[in-house]
Amino acid sequence: MNNNDIPIYKNPDFPIDERVEDLLNRMTLEEKISQMLYYSSAIGRLDIKEYNWWNECLHGVARAGIATVFPQAIGMAATFNPDRIYEVASVIGDEARAKYNEFQRQEDRSMYKGLTFWTPNINIFRDPRWGRGQETYGEDPYLTGRMGVSFIKGLQGDHPEYLKAAACAKHFAVHSGPEEERHEFNAVVSVKDMRETYLPAFRDAVKEARVEAVMGAYNRVNGEPCCGSKTLMQDILRGEWGFEGHYVSDCGAIRDFHENHKITDSPEESAALAVNMGCDLNCGMVYEYLKDAAKKGLVSEEAIDRSVRRLLKTRFKLGMFDPEDRVPFNKIPYDVNDCEEHRQLALQVARESMVLLKNKDSFLPLDKDEIKSIAVIGPVADNRSVLLGNYYGTPSKYVTILEGIRQAVNKDTRVYYTEGCVLGDVQQSHWGNPARTGFSEALSMAERSDLVIMCIGLTPEFEGEEGYAANSDGGGDKLDLSLPGLQRELLETISMTGKPIVLVLTSGSPVDLCWAEENENVRAILEAWYPGEEGGTAVADILFGNYNPAGRLPVTFVRSLDQLPPFRDYSMKNRTYRYMESEPLYPFGYGLSYTKFKYSNLNVSKKELFTEDDEDIFVSVEVENIGGLAGDEVIQLYIKDLEASVRVPIWQLNGVKRIHLKPGEKAKVEFILKKRQFALIDEKGECLLEPGKFRIFVGGQQPDKRSQELTGQEVLYEDIEYKGQVVELEY
Fold this sequence. Notes:
The protein is about 25% helix and about 20% strand. Helix 4 (about 80-105) runs antiparallel to helix 13 (about 340-355) and helix 15 (about 400-410) crosses helix 19.
């Protein structure tokens, strides 16, 4: 049979749009509807195989067996290194294809076996109580956008014809808790805050990264459900941004229309509303009612065709209807999963992610030749779950913090270990054993050791998605910022021995560290996040000086919740570093190093510009390692509008570069700024470039007083001025 004898949809020499249309025209209404549920049915007469759209790869291929587990997303954000995230996502894409190839060979087409991944989560981590904040890239729209774009491009690949895998930007659009109310919650947000904070990362994902899919959130936004919102789905996503991919509901979100939001009266009405607004794929079962909805005249076959057309196009782009040897990604072997090369990348990302928050009198790095005994104390020291976060796969090997330390010290160094306390309980056991029963052993070990490494913090059981964080009192969210159970008391008890303490913290979000920051015996604090399969090795590498930390906080560590508005308030007033009115404990963008860097010769190509021109600004700075150790430096560029006509951020991150310098080495770092980066969003949601003065800051941190106090370093700045008239720019 030659190509002229086969249907157009089976002929890879025809354009995809023609192939899609040919296949669509051969399908009955019932067959079309069967393709709009996440468990799409097989259509034997057309040789369409069954396909399950639901898959996850937040920080590695999830829920489908052996895979490389990278640091949780919030940890990857702390690298401030979009290039590294692209590399990570490319590896994840390879492993995803390798698994898919093998599953196809085994004819296993069940959940988590496909190529459509509901990743990344690019919601803004606006409040530290939100349990799912760990899945995001932090609180800043610019950083979230850069990380999201890099991840999407890496996962989808750069082949001109085929996608390696399909990414999905979620959860569109104003979504960050509370978890236990997400099925009925209405997020009330101004158009200014929406376009200034909540939408930019999605815009970048669509317009720059060309993300294949977008997932709608559970909640309503200003009264409209996100999976049935004309404003979000039609006006903005497809109208303004020209999104051409498919839209998928969060799981059960369309059922929420009639059961929880009460904006429809029946499953038929809910299904019709979602499809009419442009939700193509139902994670759920409400679209089983679409045939009845069509009979009632609630939805047209034309609207159904529109959705099925988009879904089929994604499958064609993934090569699912083409000969196996025509799709290059089909050759990726199964053995790449969690191979040594990928494990080494996981280790490197873990090292880059960790943030040194305190290092009194340069206590770190430790000299292992001078240490005869170490007490490793705490309930997360030998805990595997803290390596994984949520939405994870299964690594072939786990390296806990305790194991990493044991591997790093000299053979004759004594390493004591005890949990000291359990993670969350404060009550005596069923058999009458007191909750503090482990304190005595912890004290004994501390007293016999040269130093103590306290390993405490959170685990995914205490923060995460509704229904998964089993020990959360807030339905997945945190009620406060305190350490669970007796961990704080254990830390205070050990500190009374007078032994120097290094605190290693695991978490996916900020916790209260005020006491530890102020305590003299706590010499150092390292935020390790949920660091992935090689997390223990990475922690030990930093503690013993095999790696110089350079991670930066992608979220603000507040001193207390008193500094924040109520959790349910979606206004950005007094939220995140961009609008926070009080001084935090640890600012966004902050992190220490074992060496020192000097900034000099800040140069701005032009200091006077005109709003009507499209001229770029070139910014350069010289960075020199003036310390005694090689290390990375994260160069951050912030812009402050000095004369804005409306409320604008205090300053806004608009550039980031991570570089490596040897002692005495100097590098010139350059940024290119578009005039769009100097524009503001007014109260009507319009993007305006106003004439006026702007300040450009460049340094290793924010230009705030607290960062300067913690690091002892200032940032450089130069002022520029735009002249002319107010100009409206494309959003």
